[in-house]
Design goal:
With about 180 residues, the chain is mainly alpha-helical. The protein has helices at about 1-25, 30-35, 40-75, 85-110, 115-140, 165-170; strands at about 25-30, 145. Helices cover about 70% and strands about 5% of the residues. It starts with a helix and ends in an 8-residue tail after the last helix.
Length: about 180
């Protein structure tokens, strides 16, 4: 019985000390999407990426149209073809499909040109934003700063800890609240 009482007292004491320690920590959050969209260079780079992406998507659509046309022609004339011609046409269609899939992977796959260009163009701006976040957090003595735009989800956030305006100011960008 003494062991249970001691364990309960220890547990309550630990919970109370954690609650007291937690009150000393300062938390802040920001929304990287909002910050990035407020940077003019980011929007320009995003437009460049969209232009490149649209060109590649147009090429993919052209390839798909060509494949579709070949398939329709094959289906409409299949009974007229000899076995040799039929196999050649099927192979031609399969080659076109394979070429399109390879093109899509080359441009938009995990290691594709789109993501490497995106990283190349946007990484310097992202480093600049994170440096500004660190500067604001250190200057204002925050213990933790979370990015609400990404995978981290907060159920509640006191707007008093929203650092968007300060980060934009650190980046030299005016805010609407001025």
């Amino acid at each position: 019985m003494k062991t249970i009482r001691f364990t309960l007292i220890l547990a309550f004491g630990l919970l109370f000390s954690l609650q007291v320690m937690g009150q000393d920590q300062r938390l802040g959050y920001f929304e990287s999407d909002l910050i990035l969209e407020s940077i003019p260079e980011y929007n320009s780079l995003q437009q460049q990426l969209n232009t490149i992406s649209n060109q590649w998507e147009a090429e993919i659509q052209r390839m798909e149209a060509e494949i579709s046309e070949l398939q329709e022609e094959f289906e409409s004339k299949e009974i007229l073809y000899t076995d040799e011609i039929r196999n050649q046409r099927k192979q031609e269609i399969e080659n076109k499909i394979s070429a399109k899939e390879q093109y899509v992977a080359q441009k938009f796959g995990p290691n594709g040109e789109y993501f490497s260009r995106q990283k190349e163009l946007l990484e310097p701006i992202q480093r600049q934003v994170f440096a500004a976040v660190r500067a604001v957090a250190q200057r204002q003595n925050y213990d933790y700063v979370f990015d609400r735009s990404g995978d981290i989800y907060m159920v509640y956030a006191n707007n008093a800890y929203n650092l968007n305006d300060e980060i934009l100011e650190e980046l030299g960008i005016g805010t609407d609240s001025e």
